[in-house]
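PROTOCOL LOG
Step 1. Enter all chains and additional molecules of the complex.
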Amino acid sequence: MQTDVTVLIDWSSAEPVYAQIARQIRSRIASGDLTPGLALPPVRVLASDLGVNLNTVARAYWLLEEEGFLRIRDRSGAEVTAPLRDADPAAVERLRQQLAAVLSRMRQAGLTLAEVRQQAERELATLAGRDPERQLEAT
Amino acid sequence: MTTGIFFVVTLVEALLIGGIFLLYPRFARRGLLFGVYVGEQVSAGDEAGRITRGWYTGIIVWMGLTILVSVGLWSVRPSVALAPLAPSLLVIGFLGLYLRAYFQARALAPEGPAPPAATVLTSTPPANPILPFTAIGFGAACGVAALAYAASHYADLPPLVPTHFGPSGAPDAWRPKSLGTVMLLPLMTLVLGVSLGVIAFLTSRAKRALRYPLTEVSAAAQTRFREAMTRYISAIGMMATLMLTLMAISSIRVALGLERGLSPVAMITAGVLLVAALAGTVYIGLRYGQGGARLERAASRAQLTDGLADNRYWVLGMFYVNRDDPAILVEHRFGLGYTLNLGNWKAVALFVLFIGLLVGITVAALVAK
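Step 2. Run joint prediction.
Step 3. Record the structure below.
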């Protein structure tokens, strides 16, 4: 592992702890820091390190399994799964609707269309493992 | 016991026990000051230095007072009952000085939101349980062997059996023969031998205290510390089991008139155990530091997270109480080794079971006819 693949919990955040864990693992998988086939620590180890309830970590793992990022293994461990080769059209449509909902919410939150686009570009750049600033310049 | 022997024993006790207390701040993690998380910068600052110097002075003065009081009382009225006085005084002094330093450190604790919690997603393989399991097996085998030996000779034992042995190994106290008096030591061997193996096993899976960033560096240091502690507790556990087994068998042989005192091997094992326990503590403390603190190097300046850093979960800096945390053993904030998560019912149940067995066996032995 080249980088410290850390999960950090901010107690003052309004985001629930399970969602913070899921978001950070998801982001690490998307950026390639966590590669397919990699074993994640058992629920007990993560919960113990973070000082949170076992169910909190288990909920994050279940959520990521539902989203297709992880496969839960025996003894409460989990393994990073590879992206599917062929997208399921129904799943794509469902995700497109979720994306549309998020973009609408950003607009509703007061961002201009240009700002919404900037945010989307930034996330795409992160996903591609590129420098967001350079990506913005290119657009 | 002569005055000379009492003086030497008191001096050695004071120097060894007080010496380890004196070294405690040297084992500490950066960021922690006498059981309080004050932050990495503050713990290396002038005020922290003043509190730590107060600790050194206090412990040295208390060691001197302990020796003076113990020897003074002995010179007025010599009694074997004064033997545990020095260790008791040292522990009382330690607690008093610790609490003073703790409240001084509390004043330096940062205000504001709780520090973050961190973990690494690199899955480290679980520690090899062979050594703790060996210690558990050894404790069980020796305990059962000692019980079997005592049971097989029970009918042949005289009406009075030795229950205490002096420094020379010769018996100096007897009690009427009963199941309790005869079986006490073998049962203690079984309980202590197995329990120390279980503690070694739990140590290998204790809660980690990590830093952020450079989390993986602190995780690696932590792993090495836990491995060292597991080896140490397993080894001490097996040595204690061996010593108790030899003593249990030897005391039966003394009662039967086959030997005049405790076996020299048992006495030597007891001496080696004492030296190994103390030397091991000092070695691990100075080589690894608490939780591997001395292996963290540059990472020691990074923010300590969660369990150790969150003052909300620590009562007087000594007792960790977090109901959500599934951890059973948690690093001490001050000193060396691990303590229980008193918010976890499994940890509390284990502690109650262990103490209950020791007290239960002793009480049963005293009242058994």
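Step 4. Note key features.
Chain A has a mean pLDDT of 86.
The CA atoms of residues 42 and 77 of chain A lie 4 Å apart.
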